[in-house]
Design brief:
Belongs to the BolA/IbaG family. The chain has four helices and three strands. It is an alpha+beta fold.
Length: 89
């Protein structure tokens, strides 16, 4: 699955999110992706609940098109405190 399609699905479910999705293992490994998602929807949620919001956005793609997803999620305030670069895709 194309990383931009994955990012679009996440943005559709979490409209205020900043999203970056890339291939995790190189350009030719289509089913291993890495995503960084920063969303106000994550405020007050546990890390598990944040990840579930993203997985819910991807629905059946997680079992058909995406083999693995390295996922980092942050509420906006937590992201400001993290030392993570963000380049939106």
């Amino acid at each position: 699955m194309d990383p931009s399609d994955v990012a679009d699905l996440i943005r559709e479910a979490l409209p205020d999110a900043r999203v970056r999705v890339r291939r995790a293992r190189g350009k030719h490994d289509d089913d291993h992706l890495a995503a960084l998602v920063v969303s106000p929807a994550f405020e007050g949620e546990t890390l598990v609940d944040q990840h579930e919001l993203v997985y819910d956005a991807l629905e059946s793609h997680m079992t058909t098109d995406i083999h693995a997803l390295e996922l980092k999620t942050y509420a906006p305030d937590a992201f400001e405190d993290a030392d993570v670069a963000f380049e939106e895709a």
